[in-house]
## 1
Amino acid sequence: MDISVLRNSILFRDFDDTEISELLKALNAAEKKYKKGTMIFSSGEITDKLCFVTTGSVTVESNDMWGNRTILNLVSEGQFFAESYALLPDVPMLVDVCAAEDCGIIFMSMKSLEKLGDTVRSRLLMNLLTITTRKNLHLSSRSFHTAPRQVRGRIMAYLNTVSVQKHSREFDIPFDRQQLADYLNVERSVLSNELSKMQRDGLIQCRKNHFEII
Amino acid sequence: MDISVLRNSILFRDFDDTEISELLKALNAAEKKYKKGTMIFSSGEITDKLCFVTTGSVTVESNDMWGNRTILNLVSEGQFFAESYALLPDVPMLVDVCAAEDCGIIFMSMKSLEKLGDTVRSRLLMNLLTITTRKNLHLSSRSFHTAPRQVRGRIMAYLNTVSVQKHSREFDIPFDRQQLADYLNVERSVLSNELSKMQRDGLIQCRKNHFEII
DNA sequence: GAAAGTATGTTGTAATTACAACATTTCAGG
DNA sequence: CCTGAAATGTTGTAATTACAACATACTTTC
């Protein structure tokens, strides 16, 4: 397994290559490839696997019985997902996870945490804690993006966050139109329409997933 | 400080009374009382304090510039809040925290974690991990409650969750009408109206915050 | 138990969104 | 450089929601 991406991950912060290799073995790490659109986890499944995205990206989403999709999170290369379910192994997943692009995922068994020595284990726990707290902030920030009652408000809330993160008024977003609509919990056509209006009103410029706030 | 409530908290699981007392001292624990409606934290503040609700309850909420309130979470007696901000002490809070009722809060400094011995520290970290992962699930479940496009769908999604949690078709909810509206991201009057319709349609029965699903 | 204050229910209208249907643009393979 | 498939944009209408204004019910305090 290629550990170059893992070396820079939060999980293995302060671990050297030898330690990482040993840990991967202890955690039964295994990589799997997925084609765009494939479902990686379905709501109701139980897992103890911490998942790491080596290439591509996945969406964490809720698909209700009427076919509405809500994207809770987009997880890209170098990030983790399913950490909560991995650490609470009796809780069935509430979400689906889908390959947003062709992607590679490394699965690590958290059940195996117990087998680790005290020191290594506690260093790993600290890193896991960083992952889960950051994920928490991510989940809350989506709440801000969907808090405004109107579509324009939601778009602005989202674009502002991205702009702040990237330290620039001009940036790319990781979503296509349908994904952005599903993330902001609005109709795709209404989103497209509102983006057009916002350009006419001189608020933003956009082309595909490149945006500029004016 | 009265540690009887803390004894049963997730944070101190597997700690005995002596250990808890020592930990409270090490973490500079201090209790403070708040009147209903008081703001405990404001968006933008920075804190390293893990907060525990001894009595009453608080809401974690986002108040935007147009005066819209969105309740992300209601934290009741025996639960924690601000854990993400406490553990990522350079991140300013995105949310406000308000006393939903008269309440008591114990503040514990997470900066002081470093001072602890390895063993105690790692036991505490494991418990913190449980707190943050559970909080994660809580945050995602709100996303399901607000995912349906229509008010009735949101109400049903929420009531279903509560019903499952309480193992009963009949239960009390912790929200009043305004709070429930702010949690589900809908207008209070529209919520009241829809609840009436749902009763006429024979879907539910409700009086104040007591509900029955039929 | 009256008064004042707070919470909840009801209604109408204006504004917004959902949804469907179709037009246009973009992109990947042949 | 065609062609089909996918993504994005546009528009109109039906349905839903926001908002304000008011009515009713419930609580708390004196």
Note: Residues 118 and 141 of chain A are 35 Å apart (CA to CA).
## 2
Amino acid sequence: MKILTENTLFKGLTESQITDILSTAYHREKSFLDGEIIVHQGDVINNIGIVLSGNATGKKYTPDGEEIIVSNMKANSIFGDVLSGAIGFASPVTVQAVGPCRVLFIDYNQLLYSHHPLAHHVLQNMIQSISRKYFAQNKRMDILMLKSVRSKVLSYLEWQRQTKGTNTFAIDLDRRLLADFLGVERSALSRELSRMKADGLIDYHKNNFTLFI
Amino acid sequence: MKILTENTLFKGLTESQITDILSTAYHREKSFLDGEIIVHQGDVINNIGIVLSGNATGKKYTPDGEEIIVSNMKANSIFGDVLSGAIGFASPVTVQAVGPCRVLFIDYNQLLYSHHPLAHHVLQNMIQSISRKYFAQNKRMDILMLKSVRSKVLSYLEWQRQTKGTNTFAIDLDRRLLADFLGVERSALSRELSRMKADGLIDYHKNNFTLFI
DNA sequence: TCTGTTTTGTTGCTATGGCAACCTGATATA
DNA sequence: TATATCAGGTTGCCATAGCAACAAAACAGA
């Protein structure tokens, strides 16, 4: 349980305070094998999930059956918080184990309605966590709304430069995922990257990029 | 202040409970004239804003200077909640008065850290409010990711049918706003709507739509 | 009712990007 | 070392949709 002290949901709390709070809300640990579904798209859930070990992905399926990876989760990632918070909403994503993984589920309502003096603190952390997810999504929306592939790529790289703080940086998406993120064809992305390199705007090799502008 | 009993942030509380809670957090009411800026894009704020009367819009500007209306706010709309919740984030939007309007600002931290017994309740409402905004955004992202204008329109209309519950319904966006929402050209939207009518998929007049599929 | 204004529809032109198909190079595996 | 596999790059074709410019309704105000 030591890992939870690093979790954004319990940030600022000691290990004993965390176990103390958890004693007031029903929770259980569950293990999943590679490929097992943790949450189905369409499920209505009332639990917060925390990845204790291993990895999981959030995917969704477009109307025409294409699979899109929405998020990659590793240890200490939280899911189901926004979903539980909205009350009554169906999960827009399927959460699936990538390799064996362990997940801690915490009853959302009991945690929320707990009168434990520190529950307040957890709520504040939760608001912060949800708000951050909102803005991450917001950033992506801004990019998706741009019309040309080039402007999308530039906007993305500019964003990365800002968060990384250097003109040369590695991104954590491969071409397929980057194309999905930008909402373009993988081949169209490759094509535009070449053009941008030819135009002297950027340089890149694999997932290492340099921005010249 | 009676209007606040209808506000999602104070849902479930009586008028006297609301004034009671407000007494623990710094708040002020402010009036704005038509066109006045309430929040500038890029501002870092620590207040929750509630529109008491009048209307306001949330706009943002694309890299190439184009103005996009992101949201329309009326009485009891809340803004700044997600922004304050994320702590340290710059506002991605400019909030501007449309006609004269009054806004109630509440200090976010004092409301959040209040030890008032009902503050917990407000926090829960806030989580719900933010989560809902997240999912509204999420829905839009799904639509923006589709490639063709037709699929975007169909996805949007299908969504409207589901929320409205009938095959015939009025939407609350005009063509300009709908085009922005879908991330397409206004003329391209009009063109595709005509085609879809010709193909017998839909019928429409102004903002009244009927879905045949 | 007339007129100015705003909203919506229409249409030709053309660049863009989706699609498909294939190539190249890297990494893994036997 | 040979070969299978996978990520990334390249390219031709062509429908789609952006852009611009204009037409036609719808609406508002005098």
Note: The mean pLDDT of chain A is 92.
